[in-house]
Structure prediction request, 403 residues.
Amino acid sequence: MATSVALPSQEAQNPFANVVRFIPGVLLLAAIGFAGKLMEQSINGYAKAHHLVIPNIEYVLWAIAIGLLVANTLTIPKVFLPGIATYEFWLKAGIVLLGARFVVGDVLKLGGISIGLVILEISGSLILMTLLGRLFKLRPKLTSLLAVGSAVCGVSAIIAAKGAIDADDEDSSFAIAAILALGAIALVTFPLIGHALHLSDNAYGLWSGLAVDNTAEAIAAGALFSDAAGKVAVLAKTTRNATIGFVVLGYAIYWASRGQAEKVKNKGAFLWNKFPKFVLGFLVISLLVSVHVFNKEQVGALANLSRWAFLLTFAGVGLRTNFREMSKQGLRPFIVGALGEVLIAGLTLGLVVGANAIWKL
Amino acid sequence: MSEEKLATTATRLGLSLDVWAVITSFLLAILVRTGVLKHVPW
Prediction:
């Protein structure tokens, strides 16, 4: 009989083996993203050459659509999967580099408005999701995960909360599937609603940053409306992400008080551990641009690097959205999530319209 | 591979995924500032 001995894997010993296995998937992200960019350019070029007036479909939508088509019609070989998951890395790098497009004054003005709205959004979302979870008799920890995911930042918040409140793998899979499915729906519905209501770029960007849960989808929903709206969506969503530690800490203390999770020993360390560091990176780049460390061409180069990083992110959003897998997770969490999201979208839209009336966003 | 596994891999390399993203971005910013990366087309 063979004995089972726990040996450290080769990957653990050699960090470069980890890096190499990301390459095929990253190349796939780049190929799909670039195909999306080519589609936008080709269609616009054709329309211009033939004097046709057709709506401009941004590369964002093409990259997501091609990714969705590949993920839902083909079986993606395993060799690509590690690299596809790096879309989260590109998303964060893209946000940091996007700091080049904000001077500190913009960050303070829009960020200040965002902080007020984020506090209202988080409180409203937590209350709504908790009530809906109880009404539909979801498992309490699943309700907590859905509440954290919809209030703060989707998948990252659910993963952070899962460890902190000792939730089951099954519950976190349910919550992640619901949040991702609803994010995919938001990609289609939000730009349509925004255009129908004639929202300004700032108001729409703020709305998508406040209401769409997962960071990648929130930024994509903003960019689908306009480049400027995408920029504001990043700022609003980043403000929301910055609160992740506080919300997860609150839930960790609650579940620990009920004896169903480990006690948090050092709250300061817990908050720092959960704090999204890319928010600091974004602020540092923005500050450096504001004090003219970079000239105009260099700011343009940084902004373009950010666009390339987002291109890979959007391809990843399409590729990891597999409707067959999501449908296996069952309907009830999805219904609770959908009901909650519709109410949160309505609440945040009201907040943004109100803020627009006061501050002329 | 889920985001969770990616985060674990990043941590195994010594730092969190967030910190890797910040370091990569800062390195790119240094390359742009020093003129190594002069023109980034879009």
